[in-house]
Design brief:
Distance between the termini of chain A: 20 Å
Number of domains of chain A: 1
Structural class of chain A: mainly alpha
CATH superfamily of chain A: Winged helix-like DNA-binding domain superfamily/Winged helix DNA-binding domain
Number of strands of chain A: 3
Oligomer: homodimer
Largest interface: A-B, 75 and 75 residues
Number of helices of chain A: 6
CATH architecture of chain A: Orthogonal Bundle
Helix content of chain A: 55-70%
Largest sheet of chain A: 3 strands, antiparallel
DNA sequence: TATTGTTATACTCTATAACTATA
DNA sequence: TATAGTTATAGAGTATAACAATA
C-alpha cells in the first residue's frame, strides 16, 4: 500500500500490485478522475458528494453529517457554501422545529447530473479495453466490497437514516 | 455515480451498483478506511501519501508535486508540515543547486510502515469472506485499472520521474 | 530564458468548544 | 436533559501570483 514504487510496467501483462496496494491505488485513481471532473465545474469532491447525496431525497443537517462522516459544524460550512452558490436550499422541518432540511435546487441538480455523466464517461473510457466479462466482474467485486464494508461498519445504505462506527 | 440512493441491500446477494457507481463508492470506502487508520496516527491521507512516496527513494519537490498532482506551492506547505513533525528532511541536490531533495527520517519511516500495516489489516478484514478466486480477480482487476489509467494519463509508474496530463 | 522552490494571499475544509433553540 | 444547528476559532490543505536563485 501507500505507494510502494517497486512497480514495474511491462508493456502488456500488468504486474499485480496485490489486493491491498491495488485497491488503495485504484481508489486514488478514481478520486483523481472524480476530482478532475468536479474541478472543471469548480466543485470539490466533497461538495459533489453533498449534491449527490441530495439527488433523490431531502436530508437534515444531521443526516448529511452522518452520511458523509462529518462533524455537524463542518456540515454547516459545507451547506453554507453550497447554498451561497445556489445549489441547495435550507428549510425548517415540518414536525421538528430544530431540524433543518436541505434540498437540491434546479441549478444544483443540473450541475450534479452533468458531473455524474462526465465521471461515467471518464471511467468508462479507462475500462473500455477490458472484456465484457472483466467489466462485469469488476462491477460485481466493487459492489461486494462496498457492501461488505458497509456491513462491517453497521451502515444501512438503504435509508437516509444512517448509523455508523469507524472513526 | 455520486451516491444514487436507489440501492437496495438484500441480505445475501449484493445488488450490483454498476461499474461506475461501484468503483466510485469503492474508492470512497477505501479512502474512509485509509483515512481512519491515518487519523489514528494523527496523519492526513495526503501526508501519508507523501511519506509513502518517499518510502523507497528520495524525491525533489518538483517530483513530489508531479507524483501527487499538487502545485509546487502546495508541496512546499505539505513538506513544511511533515518536516516540522520530524518525518522528512530537506537537502540540496548535489548537482543542481535549485533542486531540493526530500527524504524520510527514521521516525517518518516508522510511522508510514505502521500505517501501511494497519491499512492492510483493515482491508484484508473486509475481504476475508471473499473466495480466493474472487480476491485474486479483484487484485488483478484493480491493478489493470490503475495501469490503464496511468497509461491514459501518460504517467510512468516506474520512475520517480513523472509526466502527466489530467487537470 | 527556463526551471526550482518559496512566500504572500485567499479560500475551502475540518474539528473542538461554546452557544441557542427546540423537544 | 438530550438533540439539532450555528458560531467562533484554529489549523491543514490548496491554488494563483509574484518573487529569488540557479541553470
Amino acid at each position: 500500500m501507500i505507494h510502494s514504487p517497486t512497480v514495474k510496467l511491462s508493456a502488456k501483462a500488468t504486474a499485480d500490485l496485490g489486493v491491498v496496494d491495488g485497491l488503495v491505488q485504484l481508489s486514488f485513481s478514481i478520486q483523481a478522475i472524480v476530482g478532475s471532473v468536479t474541478a472543471h465545474h469548480d466543485l470539490s469532491i466533497i461538495q459533489t458528494r453533498l449534491l449527490g447525496a441530495l439527488r433523490d431525497r431531502k436530508l437534515s443537517m444531521a443526516q448529511i453529517a452522518r452520511l458523509i462522516s462529518l462533524d455537524k459544524s463542518s456540515t454547516t460550512g459545507l451547506v453554507d457554501r453550497a447554498e451561497k452558490r445556489g445549489y441547495v436550499e435550507r428549510s425548517i422541518a415540518p414536525h421538528d422545529g430544530r431540524s433543518v432540511l436541505v434540498t437540491l435546487t434546479t441549478s444544483g441538480r443540473r450541475v450534479v447530473d452533468r458531473v455524474a455523466t462526465e465521471v461515467a464517461r471518464e471511467i468508462n473510457a479507462v475500462i473500455e479495453d477490458l472484456s465484457d466479462v472483466d467489466r462485469r466482474r469488476l462491477s460485481q467485486l466493487a459492489s461486494r466490497f462496498v457492501h461488505l464494508d458497509a456491513e462491517a461498519r453497521g451502515i444501512d445504505l438503504t435509508a437516509g437514516q444512517t448509523t455508523q462506527r469507524r472513526n
